[in-house]
Amino acid sequence: MACTCSHEPAPIKPNSKFRTALWIALVINLSMFFIELIGGAYAHSSSLWADSLDFFGDAVNYGISLAVLSASLYWRATVALVKGITMALFGVVVMGKVIYAYIQGIPPEAITMGIIGIIALLANVVTALILYAFRDGDSNMKSVWLCSRNDAIGNFAVILAAVGVFGTGSLIPDLVVAVIMASLGLTAGYHVIQQALAERRINVPE
Fold first, then answer.
1. Rounded distance between C-alpha atoms, residue 154 and residue 186, angstroms
2. Predicted pLDDT of residue 89
3. Could you give the angle at the alpha carbon of 172 between the alpha carbons of 166 and 177, nearest 5°?
4. Cβ atoms within 10 Å, residue 16
5. Is the pTM of this model over 0.70?
6. Is it the case that residue 12 has pLDDT exceeding 80?
7. Could you give the CA distance from residue 152 to residue 120 in angstroms, rounded to a whole number?
8. What pLDDT, on the 0 to 100 scale, is given for residue 2?
């Protein structure tokens, strides 16, 4: 009996709705990257700074996803593998930033954190709702959905951190949220990597 493991199906025709959703997500995330980068630096906030890097990473991921929509499942899975590794590395970088901020000991500016956190939350809720319909697709689609979901959760946590900083005058709530965001990046990256590796194994091109 002939083995069919090396014969993958023809590339799926790109979903126009998914393509449009990716473009919207790309614009939103790139805009929020600049807003949080500037705001995070001004407020001395680790969680805002971390979230700005996450927005930038997501914008790059959405751009890559747009570029490979017409590719075979093997190559879409390969790109998803790279994105999964990037998500995990983001978690490691944020952990390093938390340690650095703790050593510095400068409490962030709570009002700026809260305002930007609310704006970012609204942006990510819109993105997550737009991408929700594609959450059960291949590893590439799944990675896009996980990015938007994690961002929305992270932004809500940033708002809670701002409240905590405002009430205590301590940088600890900000650092705790940054650690949570790093953990989300690590776990989501792990799941995307696992699915992408599985898809690559069963769709190896001849």
1. 13
2. 83
3. 90
4. 9
5. no
6. no
7. 8
8. 32
